[in-house]
Amino acid sequence: MKLTILGNNSALPAYDRYPTCQVVTIDGTMILVDCGEAAQVLLRKHGIGWHKIRYIFISHLHGDHYFGLPGLLNSMSLLGRTDPLYLYGPSALQEIIQKILDVADTRLSYPLHFTALPEGAATLADTTLFSLKCFPVEHRIFCQGLLVTEKSKGRKLLPERCSYYQIPAAYYKKLKAGQDYEKKDGTLIKNEWVTDAGKSDKTYAYCADTIYTDSFLSYIQGADLIYHESTYLEADAERAAARFHSTARQAASVALKAGAGKLVLGHYSSKYKSVDEFEAEAKSVFPDSVASREGDVYEV
Ligand SMILES: [Zn+2]
Ligand SMILES: [Zn+2]
After folding, report:
1. 222: which DSSP letter?
2. Which of 33, 80, 230, 286 could form a disulfide with 252 if both were Cys (CB 3.0 to 4.6 A apart)?
3. Domain that holds residue 177
4. Both 32 and 175 in a single domain?
5. What's the CA-to-centroid distance between 239 and ligand 1, angstroms?
6. Residue 154's pLDDT is what?
7. How many angstroms is it from 56 CA to the middle of ligand 2?
8. Are residues 122 and 234 located together in one domain of the fold?
9. Kind of pairing, strands 21-26 and 29-35?
10. List 16, 27, 34, 64, catalytic entry
11. Is the domain of 165 the same as that of 240?
12. Of the bound ligands, which one is closest to the alpha carbon of residue 230?
């Protein structure tokens, strides 16, 4: 799984930074996470194929998180997309998109499946490769975070060992699931002789626009990678709280309490020209912090 940062600014475009948009890629399937107004431009600029986007998650209906969506949906249609697209967002989003399509007498070339985000936490998608779950954060309006889990593919076969012990290929699935193998003569081949642990589940937690709070810690506990908004620096903590946003220091504190592997910062206020200070402030609390830049790619 990898995370590509496209837009990493808050409400206004400033200093070559654009409103929120990022892409999570798992085995060639893409999940677009929020769709700020420059989304199409940034996807093109960074060579990300739109046709691979299968899911779009809109955390909330502040414009900096979805004003790019009508344009993107329309462009996908102009390009003749036929694959279904799964869209998750606050319930009013469906009506907004439908109205925009209706007044333009536009019929999309592909099926658009909309699911309204519920009030609480929920599983949105669950495939053999990954799951998508939303969880409530605390913002000025209804807003949800997103948890992406890439599932473990089970234990990893060691082919030379398997052939040494003459284990039939038909049994490999059971080996990956952790079972031992018993030969016809009753000899037991222990699973750990022919497999190793393989990759464990990997989790990415997108903590969308939110005030500093412990309320969603249980959902993101132990995440390998956390993106937490940091609209302000700690010197502006009062302003952050008044606007239901967080500071870099507060984002780092959440990552620390969650026992995260790594923290990525973003959603910077346009009052800051440089984002270097965000990184320094977060690192003082949680050393494995990074201030995202457009085009950054983080492996999970
Ligand atoms: Zn925002
Ligand atoms: Zn917002």
Report:
1. T
2. 286
3. 156-195
4. no
5. 15
6. 83
7. 17
8. yes
9. antiparallel
10. 64
11. no
12. 1
